[in-house]
Amino acid sequence: MKNILLITKREYLTQVKKKSFIVLTVLAPVLMIAFGAFIAVMLKANETQYTVQVLDKSGLFADKIQSDSKLKYVSVTPDKEQQHLKNLKDSETVDALLIIAPLQAENFEAMEKGSQLIINNKIGLDTRQRIVNDLSDIVRTARIKAMNIDESRIAELDADFKLKSSDIHDTKKIDSDLDFGVKYGLGMILMYATFMFIIIYGVRVMRSVLEEKNNRVVEIIISSVKPFDLMMGKIFGVTLVALTQFMVWITMALAGALVLNTGFSTMKDTLPAGSETMVEELDIRQMAGEISHILLEMNVPLVIFVFLFFFLFGYIFYSSMYAAIGSAVDNETETQQFTLFAIIPLMVGMYGSITIINNPDGPLGFWLSVIPFTSPVAMVARIPFGVPGWQIFLSMALLILSSLLMVFIAAKIYRVGILMYGNKATLKELWKWIRN
Q1: Which is deepest, 14, 31, 238, 254, by most CB within 10 Å?
Q2: Contact 143, 108 (CB under 8 A)
Q3: 53 to each of 72, 77, 164, 394, how far by Cα in Å?
Q4: Widest CA span of the chain, in angstroms?
Q5: Which long-range contacts (CB under 8 A, 24 or more apart) does 208-214 make?
Q6: Beta-carbon contacts of residue 24 (< 8 Å; ≥ 6 apart)
Q7: Euclidean distance between CA atoms 254 and 321, whole angstroms
Q8: How far is 368 from 379, CA to CA, in rounded Å?
Q9: Taken in order 257, 262, 264, 265, is the CA torsion positive or negative?
């Protein structure tokens, strides 16, 4: 045990003292936010205002079709249709010509069949759909007027049924679409973070083992420590490195949520009586405060505990597998045939989690969060929605037992494979090492 602690300490201190580790740990959240903002700016920069000339022979759409920053409508005279078509072909400023057929005897179907959009430059599908929607809204209003129906009555018929949902276990809290969206987003973030970090740090262990094996340094090391102690020291050391990063990021996230939540609470207190609906029309900053408020209303200690536990034991489970792979091969090219055994179960859990988030209590959600190969990612995806205690304990117990079993199997392979050179390991040989 003493040797394991010494190797763990060495692996941990070697990693955390690197400048790259400190910089990435502190700046990673900022870089992620900046990257998201950069993507948003890129999408905004790619937006173009299209100019569409409207040749309205029906007289129905005059002064009713509205322009905005993405789509500009320009009315043109109907009596010069051929001239407008000719000009459109050579125009560099007009993107399309919308020709609307005449409306006779309130025959809207005939008008629709006779109308067309002639395009000069490429227009995206969303822009075309926007034009269709604009025309549909105006035609709908005209149909209502032709039927002598009060438009306000139609608006009442079209009004959505507003259904409030609540949890029988927490009658004081009423869930909203924003609540579900926040929980969905949190589950996806926790699931993806667990998936990525298990792979990233697992591969780091594999490469460390492979490097020491190729440099023959391991021959000197195992003269002083047992192969099992060396393997566990590496796994625990890298595990502590990952947990250190997670704790820093969780602290930063909670501090930011508390600041935003305080601002949200102060804002709510300053709202006049009867203006609760104003909360639904807040700007981005106020919306961020509301999201932080929802996050802090969850069982934060349980969410953090489950996340750290399943990451820790999930990492031990898979890093043992990666350590065994690193010891069984001579170069990174040969690792590809074995790493699939580690990646595929995680991918099943990740893509399965995308489905189970919409039905956290379904049978797929239960089995994926209980089976040790997928539970590290599936359980953290479910936890924001609430998971029965017995399922959490069952999943934790199975993951602990499976991690111990995987460590035992990996140690068998590691003990023999770490000193094997020039012999390409096969599944048959790996089974022989485990059995012996």
Answers
A1: 238
A2: yes
A3: 8, 10, 45, 66
A4: 99
A5: 208/11, 208/234, 208/238, 208/326, 209/234, 209/323, 209/326, 209/327, 209/414, 209/418, 210/326, 210/327, 210/329, 210/330, 210/331, 210/332, 210/335, 213/326, 213/327, 213/330, 213/418, 213/421, 214/330, 214/331
A6: 245
A7: 33
A8: 8
A9: positive
Nearest alpha-carbon partner for 385 in 303, 330, 318, 319: 303
Which strands sit side by side in the sheet containing 96-100, from one edge to the other?
71-76, 50-56, 96-100, 116-119
Label residue 71 exposed, middle or buried (CB < 10 Å: 0-12, 13-18, 19+).
buried
Q: Which residues contact 72 (CB under 8 A, 6 or more apart)?
A: 49, 50, 51, 52
CA distances from 162 to 166, 263, 291 (A): 13, 29, 21
Ordered alpha helix ranges (H), 53-122: 81-90, 108-114
Alpha-carbon distance of 98 to 84, in angstroms, equals 11
Question: Per-10-residue mean pLDDT for the chain, 436 residues long?
Answer: 78 76 73 74 73 84 80 84 81 84 84 86 80 86 79 72 63 58 79 84 80 70 73 80 78 69 52 44 56 67 86 88 81 74 86 78 85 89 84 92 88 76 69 76
Q: Which residues contact 84 (CB under 8 A, 6 or more apart)?
A: 53, 55, 76, 97
3-state secondary structure 179-231: HHHHHHHHHHHHHHHHHHHHHHHHHHHHHHHHHHHHCCHHHHHCCCCCHHHHH
**Tokens 């995680």 belong to which residue?**
346
